[in-house]
Amino acid sequence: MSITQPADQNGCPDNVLLTKRSPHGQNVLPQNTCNDICQTACSLSTKCSIEENINPNLFVLPRKTMNESIILTSTWPTSNPIMTKNMSLQQQQFKTTSIFTATTVILFFMVIGIVLGNLLVLATTWLDNRLHQPNKYFVACLAVADLLVGGFSVPIRLYMQFYPLELYPIELCRFWIWMNIFGEAASIVTLTVISVDRYFKISEPFKYRVRMDTTVSAIVIVIIWLISAVSATFGLFSFGGSDGVTSVVAHGCLNDNKIYYTIVSVVFFFAPSVIIIFMYAFIFYIAHQRQKMNRRGELG
């Protein structure tokens, strides 16, 4: 039995013919089923015929030709493979755009925060005479290192974020990688020196005042910058079977020297981190012991 659904009743055009067969007889399809089927049938510009087999959830919808068919299962409306693929591409594009926007915003505010914050530290150290002390120069050195990262390394990374498919000049890649390692190495080494300086200042205050002066502080700062420059320069060479610094389309600037980065990670990250943790642990222990002695009146 064939039942034609008028357009004004069930949402199906007049030229769409719907048929439902079941073991118990032929019945008119429900309103929502008719609407869903008609949308698919009308998109194919042909008459649709729905046949229910042994499985009541399995339907066969003939296409434009007699020998082609679309099998619709489980749930209406029908899932179109092309539409599903397009939706997946749109979702992936939206996700990529969201990540790009978030990364760009973070990098932009990082540049502003790093530059303004460290310029403020340098200006305060320069203008306030009370900060013209040997240990305070280490703080200024740390501000300069962070300023190099925020003023050169992060802006170049932001530029690469806007032009990801560009083939960058090899000189730009070398400068970026060198400046990145140079600034970060100087920063982490300075943090380590500051922790060691504070430990000696608390553990041996009298000897510290005699030994630590402006000359010693300047020598330590020069050593910090030399170590950082040498370590960054080694990163520009290719050894250990690597290609060194390269510029690759859609990947930006690369350095595949795994041996170099392993050594740099150990020397300028893991080892300084361990030293900093131990130094501040000792500082906390000494301060706690002196507080206990002060409560007992042993410090006078």
UniProtKB/TrEMBL annotation:
<keyword id="KW-0807">Transducer</keyword>
<protein>
    <submittedName>
        <fullName>5-hydroxytryptamine receptor 1-like</fullName>
    </submittedName>
</protein>
<keyword id="KW-0675">Receptor</keyword>
<keyword id="KW-0472">Membrane</keyword>
<keyword id="KW-1003">Cell membrane</keyword>
<comment type="similarity">
    <text>Belongs to the G-protein coupled receptor 1 family.</text>
</comment>
<dbReference type="InterPro" id="IPR017452">
    <property type="entry name" value="GPCR_Rhodpsn_7TM"/>
</dbReference>
<dbReference type="Pfam" id="PF00001">
    <property type="entry name" value="7tm_1"/>
</dbReference>
<dbReference type="GO" id="GO:0071880">
    <property type="term" value="P:adenylate cyclase-activating adrenergic receptor signaling pathway"/>
</dbReference>
<dbReference type="GO" id="GO:0043410">
    <property type="term" value="P:positive regulation of MAPK cascade"/>
</dbReference>
<keyword id="KW-1133">Transmembrane helix</keyword>
<keyword id="KW-1015">Disulfide bond</keyword>
<keyword id="KW-0812">Transmembrane</keyword>
<dbReference type="GO" id="GO:0005886">
    <property type="term" value="C:plasma membrane"/>
</dbReference>
<dbReference type="GO" id="GO:0004993">
    <property type="term" value="F:G protein-coupled serotonin receptor activity"/>
</dbReference>
<dbReference type="InterPro" id="IPR000276">
    <property type="entry name" value="GPCR_Rhodpsn"/>
</dbReference>
<keyword id="KW-0297">G-protein coupled receptor</keyword>
